[in-house]
Fold:
Amino acid sequence: MMLGGPPEAPRTTLDPEHGAAAWPAAPADEAAVVAEWVQFHAGWAYVYDDGRVLWRTDGGHIRQQRLSPKGLDLVREREIDPASFVVGRASIPANALAEPVPIEYQPSNYAICPVVVDSAGFLKVMFPADQIEARLPEAVRTLVAGTAGSFRHGDWGGTAGPGGPDPVQTCFILGSDRAKAVWSHTNAHPTEPGTGGVMQVGYYTYGTLTMTDGTTMLFWSLPILPHGVGGSWGG
Structure:
């Protein structure tokens, strides 16, 4: 499988004297889900116990908005449906929102996972990251050293993903800056030009790496949500 092209962004390297130790561990950004909604080909929404609401419409990026204490109570009491953030925002009372305008979600952590996709761009195979780590280019291998861990991709909107309805994979779990440093070494995926070397914030990104054995492997990066998953496969 030979994919990719010339790099499209400056590549980040490490001071060899410090290596991976120069990067902090992936920071904690944890919160419990109070309510959630997922609908295939529509989107998903999560409400957290710290008042944050994260949602994504089908094809869009992840958005964030904070509820007021009153708004969080209304969600707990089922007076506000999480679906309202995707398909009915006019029904959300103004006093339920601590922030009047949503912003783009800025993930603290990302998972970078080796994968294979079919001609339509759908995932077919998920490789355990620790099994291919030794074949990574040296600069990338240094960046990801010691970061492989179990990652749950999320809910698949009632559909079966490549690893089953709730796929789990060993991926590289990285803080945002470190993940972007890794991604600066990737090349663009041929069906998604412009994505290699530049990680999309709050969305998944495909890119390729040329391995030490000369083969090209496809990776995707996914933002990790506060409850530890990569979101929901809303469509």
